[in-house]
């Protein structure tokens, strides 16, 4: 059975050797490179003219850290599996890992069985991450869906007591204001001038018996408490 080739990059010798031993202990993997930073990984691949199946990169390394290396690898070799290793699972680290399109995120506090299981899951095309990362991503997704729902025209109309004196264009502008758009953005989206947007807003203020944009935004804000 042919083995999946792996490159390990970790600046600390002890961790690098431990990770290498863990990987080599698995029948389906073979470590072809043990390196100390991201720049060495890039140079190793270019000089050897070999593309490893999987790169295990510590996030915090000198010269080029794992995040910068992962971003470069996924840009140049999108099919290459890239997994990041870290001792941290804070929200900032989680957001950064998602931004570089890594295939997985392993905490150094993981047990040996969990570590091996994660590598096997990744070979099956799955994205694997700590439970905290999944929960964080789920919360962010829920928040985005809530914002989208509350910016829908149906939701807005429901909270305006079924007013019939606002026309289609005015509803569109109110909806885009609810999303936080500026007059210029609205004008570009609707293919009209900023002056026309302002004219429509003046009519909206008059129909809603309010004075300005601030009061309209306050009305829209009250819809979500």
List the helices and strands and how they pair.
Layout: E1 4-9, H1 13-24, E2 29-35, H2 38-48, E3 54-58, H3 66-76, E4 81-86, H4 91-99, E5 104-107, H5 112-123, H6 131-150, H7 153-158, H8 168-178, H9 183-190, H10 194-207, H11 213-222
Parallel strand pairs: 1-2, 1-3, 3-4, 4-5
Main β-sheet description: 5 strands, parallel
Q: Within the largest sheet, what's the order of strands?
A: 2-1-3-4-5
Number of strands: 5
Instruction: Please work out how many helical segments DSSP would assign.
Output: 11
Unreliable sequence segments: none
Mean pLDDT level: 84
| Quaternary organisation of the protein chains | single chain
How far apart the termini lie comes to 61 Å
Helix content: 55-70%
Q: Roughly how many Å is the radius of gyration?
A: 26 Å
Note the overall shape. Answer: elongated
- Secondary structure class reads alpha/beta
Report the β-strand fraction as a percent range: 5-15%
- Helices and strands, in order, run as EHEHEHEHEHHHHHHH
Structure overview:
This protein has 225 residues and is an alpha/beta fold. The chain is built from 11 helices and 5 strands, in the order βαβαβαβαβααααααα. The protein has helices spanning 13-24, 38-48, 66-76, 91-99, 112-123, 131-150, 153-158, 168-178, 183-190, 194-207, 213-222, and strands at 4-9, 29-35, 54-58, 81-86, 104-107. The longest helix is centred in the middle third of the chain and has 20 residues, at 131-150.
């Amino acid at each position: 059975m042919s083995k999946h080739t792996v490159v390990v990059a970790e600046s600390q010798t002890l961790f690098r050797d431990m990770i290498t031993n863990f990987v080599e202990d698995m029948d389906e993997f073979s470590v072809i490179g043990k390196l100390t930073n991201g720049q060495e990984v890039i140079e190793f691949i270019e000089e050897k003219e070999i593309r490893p199946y999987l790169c295990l990169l510590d996030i915090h390394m000198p010269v080029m850290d794992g995040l910068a290396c992962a971003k470069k690898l996924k840009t140049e070799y999108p099919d290459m599996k890239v997994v990041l290793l870290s001792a941290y699972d804070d929200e900032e680290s989680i957001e950064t890992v998602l931004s570089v399109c890594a295939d997985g995120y392993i905490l150094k506090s993981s047990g040996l069985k969990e570590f091996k299981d994660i590598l096997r899951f990744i070979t099956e095309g799955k994205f694997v991450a700590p439970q905290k990362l999944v929960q964080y991503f789920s919360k962010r997704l829920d928040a985005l869906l809530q914002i989208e729902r509350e910016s829908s025209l149906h939701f807005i109309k429901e909270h305006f007591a079924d007013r019939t004196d606002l026309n289609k264009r005015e509803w569109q502008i109110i909806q885009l204001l609810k999303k936080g758009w500026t007059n210029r953005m609205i004008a570009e989206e609707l293919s009209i001038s900023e002056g026309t947007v302002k004219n429509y807003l003046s009519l909206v203020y008059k129909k809603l018996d309010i004075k300005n944009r601030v009061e309209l935004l306050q009305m829209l804000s009250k819809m979500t408490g």
